[in-house]
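FAQ: What does the model actually see?

It sees only this:
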Amino acid sequence: MVWFAPVTFLANDVLDADDLNSMLRDNMLEMAPAKARRRGGYFVSTGANAIAERVAAQDIKNKEIEITGTNYTSLSSAGPEVTVTQGGMLLVIFSARIYKMTNISATSPGYVSVRVVGQQEASDEWAIQHPGDKDDIVRNSSYKLFTGLTPGSARVQMMYRSAGGTVNIHQRILTVYPF
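And it is asked to produce this:
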């Protein structure tokens, strides 16, 4: 449905059922309380006088993984990964513990980033990274606001890479807020 702009009534105007239904009933059905379907949902504008319900998604993986490759890889079996419905924008928040790095220098850290599959690749620009000291255990978090995406279903994956040597990553959390 679509929101109808109510008319300004004048004295002695006659209202019929169609007028009342479109300006009262139909407009009320376009409001957030009438559209709310899921607990924890929130509403975003999808255009002029139009809203849609969105729901955040989260995936947590505690299994330790080892990364040795210098190019970003998704490790689909390892995750985390979520799929959401979005209207062209996503706020992605992610964190991980990075530790037990071997054969790695202070200038060659490990990286954890995120991508929107088929639309935006992972990048060091918004990645979290281990500082490079192989004896440190570090929990880092970051966020990225993706804009200009094709509206519809979007799959978001956590991505990993090493700048050299072995990087161990644990307690990975991916949270996505679609807009």
